[in-house]
Amino acid sequence: MTDWTPLFNEEEIKTRVKQLGKEISKDFANKDFLALGVLKGACIFFSDLIRNIETPLVTDFFIASSYAQTKSTGNLQIHYEKKESAKHKHVLIIDDIVDSGLTLKLLKERILKEDPKSLTLCTLLDKKEKREVEVEVDYIGFEIPDLFVVGYGLDYENKFRNLPFLAEFIPKK
Ligand code: IMP
Ligand code: MG
């Protein structure tokens, strides 16, 4: 027995990532563009998304964590901090999933201190009903209900990131 049930298949993800890439290419054309991935969860989404963006860009990353098993701890830890300056850049933060909103809110506040020209947020998945802090997300792949999701970069205890599709994780009894 598996401990996951499929949610979005490879084809559905590919189609949506392509659409997001197209939109972002248009919005960031001719801009000094810094794309910031939030690892580890966004590793696959980030890689696929930037290959669907046609405008030139600079990449960098944060490695951050706030989750223990299937629950947010409400405490964001930054294990690696980007090296590229955000000053006067058009910055896009790319994350895998927004839950309480805390991760993106705190990262956004950090970057705003560097005086970027603009700051926008992109997430593959949005669990809107779980929001605890207000944060506006500009590009959303899919809105989902309150499920714990794995695959396509998302993990449960660092496992399942390699599933090529997105699935709901249901722990075995
Ligand atoms: P937030 O700070 O509560 O919005 O949590 C966001 C972070 O928690 C995401 O960037 C993920 O890394 C992780 N996370 C939240 N929900 C899930 C999930 O359903 N599966 C896997 N990771 C999740
Ligand atoms: Mg994440």
Specify the helix fraction band. Answer: 10-25%
Structural class, from secondary structure content? alpha/beta
First-residue to last-residue Cα separation: 11 Å
Outline, from the CA principal axes?
A: globular
Strand content: 35-45%
Largest sheet: 6 strands, mixed
Helix-strand sequence? EHEHEEEHEEEE
Helical segment tally? 3
Radius of gyration: 16 Å
User: Which ligands accompany this protein?
Assistant: inosinic acid, magnesium ion
**Low confidence ranges:** none
User: Total number of β-strand segments?
Assistant: 9
Tell me, rounded to a whole number, the average pLDDT: 94
What is the strand arrangement across the widest sheet? 4-3-2-5-6-7
Topology summary:
Elements: E1 4-8, H1 10-27, E2 33-39, H2 43-50, E3 58-68, E4 71-80, E5 90-98, H3 102-112, E6 118-126, E7 139-143, E8 149-150, E9 166-169
Parallel strand pairs: 2-3, 2-5, 5-6, 6-7
Antiparallel strand pairs: 1-9, 3-4, 8-9
Helix pairs in contact: 1-2
The chain binds inosinic acid and magnesium ion.
